[in-house]
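Fold sample X.
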Amino acid sequence: MPAEPLASASPIVLSQRAQGVRSSAIRDLLKLTEQPGILSLAGGLPAPDTFPTGALAEAAQTLLADPATVQYATTEGLPALREWVAARCVADVGPDDVLVTTGSQQGLDLIVRALTDGGDTVAADSPGYLGALQVLQANGCRVLSVPVDEDGLDPAALEVLLEAGERPKLVYTCASLQNPTGTTLPTARRRHLVALAERYGFVIVEDDPYSALRWAGEQPDPMITLTDRAVWLSTFSKTLAPGLRLGWMVGPGEVLGAATRLKQSADLHTPTLSQHLAASVVSRPGWFDRHVAGLVPVYQQRAGALAAALRVELGDRATFAEPAGGMFLWVALDGVDTDALLPRAVEQGMAFVPGSVFHVDGRGSSALRLSFATLDPPTLAEGTARLARALA
């Protein structure tokens, strides 16, 4: 006979790791912005009208005639896709130096799991990408904040921490058109950070989703060109379509090997069909460069429209730098608590991300992040007018 259920079964107890993971403020905001009439400048969603759905549909029609396109695949990724990444990489790498991941978010999680144990110290941008902070905290890391200024992560500030005895296992930075500030780490700072990595033994994790969307300023080479103590992450989420969930990492063999083994236990491999679809379109001669060349003016126009609207609606109350690319504009509002401002903005029919969520210690409450990527210029102007009404 089956055992009788206990009359007073104890509640299900989650692991300490699960209990320590905070929900993404941005994902929570996306649910809120599904309400009718809300203009969201919160999430960094690419413009849907830029997705190459026609090319993907054409590729799918051909690919799905072959059952291999939906069969299991190797953990490392489709050879054709790894070859394409290696060929476009400015570093001297081959396909064996590339691991295809389920978005660059998975790549970051695999690296953190490969290099850290619970309680280890890691250093990261502050303000920094919220998704990275989630990964670090979910893996039980102690996060050491390194300030970001107008030139990105400040290696001199990191050096002070290192000289004081801090020993991070890795340093995470979104070094090009950073999320959330839009800053770019110049070559001199990259060399300084590399020198610190080689002196103190940490690994640099450079997350690079946005550099293809640059329209102004110099794009420095990734730090994998300067040292073998760096890993470079990138993605198709901002250039093809985020729903493909395709990213990749390039880095030292021992790191990629460990990440590959961890990936095997997580999902076996990145979806085969997504890999075939992407490889089919990007491997057409000149196609990817033409596609990206069409994206950049769209985002440049929208960034300009948002900046102009902020100047009109908020005047000298708002301080920000003109975007050089990417998807975000970081705005400082002196004397304004943007956590308290958000519900008033939602009442006016718009949403943004408060600056505090980009810090591990809740700082940054007088700043906010606006995304210009999803909405067209007239709608961005209306969203900014609603923000001004909330401030009033």
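Fold sample Y, listed below.
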Amino acid sequence: MDPKMKFIAAAKYYELQEAKLKEAKSELEGLMNELGVGTYIQDPDTTAVYKVVKPTGTFIFYKEIDYKRTALEGEKGGNVLAKKEAEEQGFVVRKTT
């Protein structure tokens, strides 16, 4: 395939994924607002624990609401929700390695 056609295909794919991501982000933000800051949720499949938080900011842009989660198996760390904090909230979290 011609590099220009590959570029066009890749650009279209990227733009489609970007649109899907924006839609998912909007839905996720709505759900986080509905649940409220400070809410903990556990994934029954992975036992990862999520916490809805009010972030202090990010490098590129400021988010109004966000979440943290515990690390999944094989990860060195999740989105900074400590396993200890999740356990203190009554959740049982699998060990990560």
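Sample Y note: Residues 1-35 form one domain.
Also: The mean pLDDT is 86.
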